Structure prediction request, 309 residues.
Amino acid sequence: MRPMRRVLVIGSGGAGKSTFAARLAARTGLPLVHLDALFWRPGWVQTPKEEWARVVDGIAARDRWIMDGNYSGTLDRRLAACDTVVFLDFPRAVCLWRVVKRRVRFHRRSRPDVPEGCDEKLDLEFLRWIWNYPRNRRPGVLTKLAALRPDQRAVVLRSDAEVEAFLASVPEAEPEPEGPPGTTTLERYVFQHYPHLMTERERAVHRHLTALFEANGAPPPPGLTYDPEEMERKASRHWISRDPEVIVEAREGWDAFRARVARRILRDHPAEVYLNHCPACGALTWTPTARLCLVCGHTWFHLPRDRRM
Prediction:
């Protein structure tokens, strides 16, 4: 599979575009853009047509991105800019069930891929649009995919099994070097800001590694002989574990443990992790609530604060 740099994710409402895009972004390291988050304003107010075209053109001109969303008025220009299109061609029954389930899950609140103030809703018009999508929209989408340039690739996924197989076939991005805020790794971002998504075993390993760190003043290197008295004090407080499985997992060290946990969280909870990318340069910000990019200096304090923590 040739490397993907500009990926467009399209499909019916309820097909799982946002979740799929988030998982693909986590695997590839490409900046993620939820078009719904940019198009809608609080109260489900639409962005004016001319302004929306400028926003889309600005995003499409970037070197690297994953964009999810339909928006037929700008689809052609996004198709022209991408190198890969993923069409989630799911059955209408699956899509309808998912939007109903989504409506219940996000009752009286905004879902992660739309702005604050756009509480989840479901009306007859949207349900009718999904029901008619296979007849009214799907043929046109397939025609556009058939007309892509030779240097572009179309991927049509029709089931969860095909989605999993495709994601498994995508090479994982090389880890980025540790650095200052704005250039931090995806693993550090997820590990620092979503610890509540750890499993009980991961929490035990985390406590164990933290206790070893405090007992020695530095991450414990292999073969280090620990202070027995300090170790006993930590053990008595149930921080240092005597569970052999926890001890074995802790031996991989901080960096490997953090990366493994972050990858597991991204795999199991893609809809609950908000990757806060700068709207201007696409860099991953330091925190999920940041509105200042330390890479390019762009600010977006004028936009509503997201409720995605």
Observations:
- The longest strand covers residues 6-11.
- The longest helix spans residues 200-216.
